[in-house]
Amino acid sequence: MSIKKKEPSPRIRRTPEESRANILAAAETLLVEQGPQTLRLADVAKAAGVANATVLHHFGSIDAVQQALMERMIADLVDAIMAIEIPADAPAEARAIGLKTLFDALESRGAARLAAWLELTDETSRLTVVREAVQEVAQKKISQGGIPSELAEDMILMSVTLALGTGLFGPSLGTLIDKPPERARELTLQMLMSYFEKLAG
Predict the structure, then answer these.
(1) Which CATH number fits domain 67-200: 1.10.357, 2.30.30, 1.20.120, 1.10.10?
(2) Residue 88: helix, strand or coil by DSSP?
(3) Range in 6-10, 60-64, 134-138, 155-159 the model is least confident about
(4) How far apart are CA 146 and CA 199, in angstroms?
(5) What span, in angstroms and rounded, lies between the C-alpha atoms of 78 and 73?
(6) Is the pTM of this model over 0.85?
(7) Chain region(s) in the chain for CATH 1.10.357
(8) Is-contact 98 53, C-beta < 8 A?
(9) Cα torsion 179, 182, 188, 191: sign
(10) Are 122 and 101 in contact (CB under 8 A)?
(11) Superfamily of domain 12-60
(12) In angstroms, rounded to a whole number, what is the distance separating the alpha carbons of residues 24 and 35?
């Protein structure tokens, strides 16, 4: 009885941009499913279906992969917020959608855990896109409601800080004190909406 050798999988040819996107998509899947501790070189390469050397070729190090993934998440979040229409007769509804978008990104996609991981490993200083992202949202979106740019940046700072905390600890803390996992998020959103309505009023 002859044993047939398994045919090797055909090599997928990608452009450099496609290769980077494939690696980042694999890294994001690992992040969401298993947490930032799984964003190791071998794990990311295996999930992306490429060699370790390919990851290093495109990013230089696994730290750079983590940084690029965080930057991509920030860019996606900014794009989603900038796409929100702010009708003159319903600014509160637009703010609610913006806050929900922020909390979804930091909680559901695992961005809060990755941000915490980068902070613990002293890598957040490399996220140079954060300032540009904050300024873009503050100047082009929040300031449309007549809110000064500096105050808009403070609003973003407070919202992101609370969303990070809620994404990291909200569900588990709620469970510990016999509250629904989503209770911390509900309370935080209510508090932010009430505060922003007072500022706008």
Answers:
(1) 1.10.357
(2) coil
(3) 6-10
(4) 10
(5) 9
(6) no
(7) 67-200
(8) no
(9) negative
(10) no
(11) Homeodomain-like (1.10.10.60)
(12) 14
